[in-house]
Amino acid sequence: MLGYILKRLLHAVPVALAVSVICFSLVQLAPGDPLAVVLPADASQETVDAVKAQYGLDRPLVVQYFIWLGNVVTGDFGKSIATGRPVLSEISNAIGYSLSLAFLASLMALIVGLSLGMLAGYTIGSPVDKVASAFAISGVSIPHYWLGIVLVVIFSVQLNALPAMGAGTNPDAGILERLRFMILPAVTLAAMPAGIVTRSVRALVAETLARDFVTALRAKGLTEVQIFGHVVKNSAPTALAVIGVQMGYLMAGSILVETVFSWPGTGLLLNSAILTRDIPLLQGTILVLALFFVAMNLIVDILQPLFDPRIKRI
Amino acid sequence: MPIGYDLKSGALAALGHTARKLSSWQVLRPAKHLACATALGLLMAHGAMAEGTLRVALTASDIPLPNGQTDQGAEGMRFMGYTVFEALINYDLSSADKPVTLVPGLASEWSVNPDDKTKWTFKLREGVTFHDGSPFNADAVIFNFDKIKDESAPQYDEKQSGQGRGRIPTVTGYTKIDDMTVEITTSAPDALIPYQIAWIVMSSPAAWEAAGSWDAFLNAPAGTGPFKVSEYVPRERAVLTRNDAYWDPERVPELDELVLLPVPDASARVAALRSGQVDWIEAPPADAMASLEAAGFEIVSNVYPHVWPWHFSMLEGSPWTDERVRKAANLAIDREGMKSLLGGMMLPAQGMVPPTSDWFGEPEFTVGYDVEAAKALMAEAGISKENPISVKAIISPSGGGQMQPILMNEYIQQNLAEIGINVEFDVRDWNALISNWRAGAKDPTTNGAMSTNSSYFSQDPFTSLMRHIDSRLVAPKGTNWGYYESAEADALIDQIRSEFDTTIQLEAIQSLHEHYVDNALFLFVAHDVQPRAISAKVKGFIPAQNWFQDLTPVSIEE
Amino acid sequence: MSIVNSEGPQTATPISSLPVTVMPRSVGYWQSVWQRLCKDKVSMICLISLILIICASFAAPLLTSYDPAIGSVIKRLKPVGTEGHILGTDELGRDMLTRLLYGGRTSLIMGFVPVFLALLIGGSLGTFAGFVGGRVNAIIMRTADVLFAFPSVLLAVAIAGALGAGVGNALVALTIVLVPPMIRITESATTQVRALDFVEAARASGAGNLTIIRVHVLGNILGPVLVYATSLLSVAIIMAAGLSFIGLGAKPPTAEWGLMLNTLRAAIYSQPLIAALPGVFIFIVSLSFNMLSDGLRSAMEVS
Predict the structure, then answer these.
(1) What chain A residue is nearest to B218 in terms of C-alpha separation?
(2) What's the gap between Cα C191 and its chain centre?
(3) Nearest residue on chain B to A157, judged by CA atoms?
(4) Which of C161, C245, C289 has the CB atom closest to A274's CB atom?
(5) What is the ipTM of this complex?
(6) CB C276 to CB A241 under 8 A?
(7) Which of B26, B163, B181, B319 could be joined to B31 by an S-S link, Cβ 3.0–4.6 Å?
(8) Shortest CB distance from C92 goes to which of B265, B414, B427?
(9) A132 to each of A115, A123, A137, C17, how far by Cα in Å?
(10) Inter-chain CB proximity C12 and A294 less than 8 Å
(11) How many CA atoms lie within 13 A of B477 on its CB side?
(12) Residue B388 gets which letter from DSSP?
C-alpha cells in the first residue's frame, strides 16, 4: 500500500511540472511585449531595466522558465499589475471562498446524486427512473451561468428570499447567515456534478443488481435491506471518487458562477485578471487552481483502493 | 479677508458654470424624491443624532486603495480619497442648489504673492491631528508633496505619484516657511493653483514610517478626514468609522460606519440593493430604475460638471485626424435617442460643458443630430456606408462616471455604422482603461485603438479643458492622451493660466471651448446626472452638483 | 493508465462508459443502429429540434427581415408577443427572434468547429499513436495527459484569457481543450483493434496499413467516437457561450447566445423572460445533443 501511495505521489511530480510549463507559456501566448504586461504603463526606464533583470527577461526562454519556477516554488508568484499586491496574497484571500462554495456544492451534489441515482438504478425503466434520469441529464446540459441568473430572478428578485450576490458584508456573521449567501451559488454549481453522480450511480446500481451474486444472495434468503447494503457498499466508493474529482472541477470551473453571483473567490479573481489583462495574476491563479485539481485527483487515487477493495492498483 | 479669498471667489465665478443657467436640478425626473431627500436632510440636521451603518455598492471592481492619493478614478476619491483624507483646500458640498465652491481645508487660508505670482503661501490649520494621533504640520505637507513629486524621496510612491502628479503640473517647488506655513512655487503664474491643490490629499508621515512601506500602510492607514479606516480587505470591503476627533464639529459624521463594497456588475448592484445587502448603489442601470422606484427606493440625481466623450487619437493612421470625419461623427449621434435609452438620466452634450455653462462661448459648429450633413461630410472624405472605414475604440464595462458604457457605446456603434464608420470595441476594466489613458495613445497597451472612452469630470478649467489638448502635456507627462497639438490652443491655455483678472480669464476659457467644438476635437456624447439609488432608510443625503459628495450628514434610520 | 482521473471535458457520457467492444462491423450493423434510433422517440424529438434550430439559424436572412445589429431605441425591451416582434426586443430595441437566429449561427459554429477540428486532429493523432505504438505512442499520450491535468473550463479560460477576446481565439482555446479526449478514445480503440485476430489475419493476407486503418480501425472506433462527439457538442456549446458570457468570445454587436445573455442581464428586472431567452436556446441545444448521445449509445449497445 505504502509503495502504491509513493508511486502515485511520484507520478504527480511530472504532472505538476508540466502544468507549470503550460502556465508559464501563457505569458508567451499573450500578444504584445511580455514586459508591457508586467509593468505599469508609465514605468521609468530604470524600473524597466530592474524588472528585466529580476525576471531575467533578456535570457533564453528555458532559463526564464526555471527562474520563474524557482520564484514560484519559494512562494513568489510576482505582483499583480492592477493592484501591486503580491499575487499569492490575492489568491489566498480568495481561495477560502471558492473552497467553501465547492465543498457545499459537492455535498449537495453527493446527496442528491446518490439518492436520485439509487432510486433510478432500483427502478430502471419505471416512470421514477425516467424523471430522475431527466433531472440528471438536465443537470449536465444546463448552462450553469444561465441557471444562476434564473435562480436570482426567482429567489432574489421575485421572492426576495435569498441574497443575490456577494458573500455578505458582515464579517462577524454566524454560520447560518453565511450559508444564506452560499445557497444560490452552491445550488447553481451543484447542478452539473449532481447530474454526473446520478448517472454514474444509476448505472452502477443497475449493474450490481443484475449481477449473479445478487441473485445468489437473494436465493440465500437475504432481505432486500441487506441487499441494499451490498448495493451501497458497491456504489459508494465510485460516487465518492466521482465527487472528489468533481470538487476539483468545481473549484476550477467556478469562474462563470462566481461572476454571476459576484462571489469573491478565485473565479472572480480570474475574471478580473482577464479584464485588466493582469497576466501575473492570471498565471498565478490558474497555476494554483490546476495544482489543486491535480491534488484532488491524487487524493482520489490514493483513497479509492482503501474504500473499494475490488480495485487492486499496481 | 486675505487676498486668497478674493482670488478664490473670482476664479469660482468662472467655475459656476452648469446649474446656474440650467433651469436647476429639479428639472430632472426624480426631482420629487430629491426634494424629499433635501427636506429630510434639513430636518435631520436639527433632529436627534441618528446613527447606523451605511453600506455602499461601488461600481469599481476593487476597493480604492486607502493610501492617500487613491485609485479607481473619481469614485475612489469620492468614497476613499475625500472621506479618509483631505487636501489643503476642500470642496463645499453642502448644497444641492448651487455650483460647488472651494473652501479652506487643511489650510485655513492661502494667497498669491502680489509681486511674484509664481509663489503661493498656505497657512495651515492649527490643532489638526491624523487618525494615528500624529500632528498635521508643514513637515507633513512637504512629506506628501515629496511622496508624489520627488523620485529620490524614501516615501516616493509610484502608484500615488501616478494618480497625483498629473493634477499639479505647474507646481515646481514647495518649502516649509515655519511649522504652520508652506510656500508653493509654480513654473509660471498659474491662477488655477487652488483647484490643483484641492486634489492632493495628505497621508500621515508617522503612520507611513511606522508601517515601513506604502503596502503596509494600507493595513493601518491614517489621514485627517471625517472617517477613518477600521478594516480594509482588498476586493471585498472597506469599513470606515466616524472620526469623533474631526477638526470641523459641523462635519463629524452622523454615521457610525460607512462600508464600501466593490460591485462592478450593474445588475448585481441592483440585486444587492433590493435584497437589503446594501443601502446605496452607484449608477443603477436605466432598465432597473422604474422597478426600483416601484419597490420604494429613491433615485437621486443632480447635474454636475461632467462629460462623456470619445477622446480621439490624433496620431498618424487614426481616421480621427480628419476634421470632416470628426464632425460627421458628432453629427451622427442621436443623443435624444440615447437619453431615452438611459431613462432620461443624461443631458445631450454639445461640447465639453453644457451650452448653459459660462464656459460654453459661441462656437460656429453646432453639435447635434443631422445624418444628412454627416453623410455629406463623409462623402467629402471619400467614405460612405458602402465604402466604410473601421475604427477601434477602447471602452470599459463599468466605472465611476462612465454611466452605462456598454449600452451607450453599442448605440454609438449603430449610429456610426450609418455613416460608414464601423466600430470595433476593445473592452477593458475601468482601472486598465485609466492606466492606458495616462500612458497615452502611443503606448503599446493602446493596441491599435483610435479613441478611448474616459469620462471627464470637469471641476475647473484645467481638468475640464486644458489638460486634454495642451501639447506640452502629451502622455505620459500629462493627460493629452491623443497627442493633439495646436499653437492656438496652447496660447489660450497659457492665457487662462496667467490671467488673474477673471473677466479676461473667462473670455479665454470660452475661446478654448470654442476651439474644442469648432474642431470637433472629441466625440461629444453626454453629460451625466449621476443617478444613484438609495434605500428609504438613508436620510440626510444632499446631492451636491459635483462628482464628489459629502457623506457626513447622511444617517440611517432603522 | 492515465496520470489523472480527469476525463477531460465534463460530458454526460464520460470516456470510460463508452461502448468500445471491438468487433468486425458490417454495413448492416449501422443500418440496424439507425433503425433502433428511429424507434426511440426521445432521440427523434431531439434530432428534429436540432435540425430545426440549425436550419433556422442558417436560413436566418430568409426568415426575418430585421438586421441583427440594428434596432430602434424607441422599441427597446418590448415584451414577448409584441406585434412585429414575436419574441420582443432587446436592450437596444433589436428584434429578439432575429438576434436569437443569427446568434444561433455564431453559437453553433463556436460549438461545432472545435469539435470537428478536435475530431480531425485528435482522431488522427490517436489512431496514429495506437497503430504505431511504442515510444511515439508514449510521447503523444503523455502530452495529452498533461492537458488532462487541467480542468477543461479552466484551460479554455486560460488560453482565451491570454490570447484576448474574439471568436477566433475562443475557437483555438476550445479546440485545444477538446483534442486530448479525442486522442484518448481513438488511441484506446485502435490499440485494441490492432491486437485482434482478424486484423492479424488481414495483415497476413497482405493488406496494407492504410487498408487496415480504413476498414478495421475506423469501422470500430466510429461508434464510440460518434457517441462521444455528440455529447462533446453539448459541452462545446455551453463552454463557447460561457466564454462569450464573460467577455472572451464574440464581441458586440455580434449576436451570440452567451453574449446576449450577458448584455441582457440588466433587464432581468424589467423583462426577465427576454433576459432568459438566449439561455433557453443554449439549454435546448445542449440537452438535445446529450439525449441524442444517450440514444445513440443504447442503439449501439444492443447487439
Answers:
(1) A85
(2) 25
(3) B271
(4) C161
(5) 0.89
(6) no
(7) B26
(8) B414
(9) 10, 10, 9, 19
(10) no
(11) 9
(12) -
Element (H, E) at A241: helix A224-253
Q: Is C4 left (phi over 0), alpha (psi -120 to 50) or beta?
A: beta
C73, C76, C269 member nearest B288 (Cβ): C269
**Residue A19 distance to chain B (closest CA, Å):** 27
Indicate the helix (H) or strand (E) that contains B192: none
Neighboring chains of C (3 or more beta-carbon pairs < 8 A): A, B
In a domain, A175, yes or no: yes
Pairing state between β B257-262 and B53-58: parallel
Minimal Cα–Cα distance from C256 to chain B, Å?
15
Q: What distance lies between CA A14 and its chain's CA centroid?
A: 21
pLDDT of residue C162: 86
Fold exhibited by the domain B306-527? Dipeptide-binding Protein; domain 3 (3.10.105)
Instruction: Give the pLDDT score at C165.
Output: 84
How far is the C-alpha of B74 from the C-alpha of B78, rounded, in Å? 6
Contact by Cβ (8 Å): B59, B398: yes
Q: Provide φ and ψ at B513, rounded to 5°.
A: -65, -40
- Residues C111/C116/C121/C127 CA torsion (nearest 10 deg): 120
| Residue A46 at interface with chain B, using a CB cutoff of 8 Å | no
Residues of chain B with CATH 3.40.190.10: 3-283+531-556
SS3 C143: helix
Q: Where are the beta strands (DSSP E) in B365-490?
A: 389-395, 421-427, 451-452, 456-457
The cell 445624418 sits on which residue?
B371
Listing DSSP states for C174-219 in one string gives HHHHHHHHHHHHHHHHHHHHHTSHHHHHHHHTT--HHHHIIIIIHH
Pick among 3.40.190.10, 3.30.465.60, 3.10.580.10, 1.10.645.10: CATH of B3-283+531-556: 3.40.190.10
Q: Name the strand (E) or helix (H) holding C296.
A: helix C272-301
How many domains does the structure of chain A reveal?
1
Identify all chain C residues contacting B267, using CB atoms and an 8 Å cutoff: 265-266, 268-269
Residues of chain A with pLDDT under 70: 31-48, 50-58, 169-172, 307-314
Per residue of chain B (558 residues), what is the pLDDT tens digit? 333 333 333 333 333 333 333 333 333 333 334 444 443 443 333 333 446 899 999 988 889 999 999 988 888 999 999 999 999 999 999 988 877 888 999 999 999 999 999 999 999 999 999 999 999 999 999 999 999 999 999 999 988 998 888 888 889 999 999 999 999 999 989 998 998 999 999 999 999 999 999 989 999 999 999 999 999 988 888 999 999 999 999 999 999 999 999 888 888 888 888 878 899 999 898 878 888 999 999 999 888 889 999 999 999 999 999 999 999 999 999 999 999 888 888 999 999 998 888 899 999 999 999 999 999 999 999 999 999 999 999 998 877 788 888 889 989 999 999 999 999 998 887 778 888 898 899 988 898 999 999 998 777 888 889 999 999 988 777 889 999 999 999 999 999 998 888 889 999 999 999 999 999 999 999 999 889 999 999 999 999 988 899 999 999 987
With contacts defined as CB-CB under 8 Å, which chain A residues touch B259?
Answer: 169
Q: In chain B, positions 266-285, which contact chain C (CB-CB < 8 Å)?
A: 266-267, 270, 285
Q: Which residues contact C37 (CB under 8 A, 6 or more apart)?
A: C43, C44, C295, C296, C299
CATH number of C37-299: 1.10.3720.10
Q: Which strand (E) or helix (H) includes residue B534?
A: strand B532-534
Question: How far is it, in rounded angstroms, from Cα B214 to Cα B222?
Answer: 12
Residues of chain B with CATH 3.10.105.10: 306-527
| Chain B, chain C: beta-carbon pairs less than 8 Å apart | 63
Give the pLDDT mean for C147-163: 87
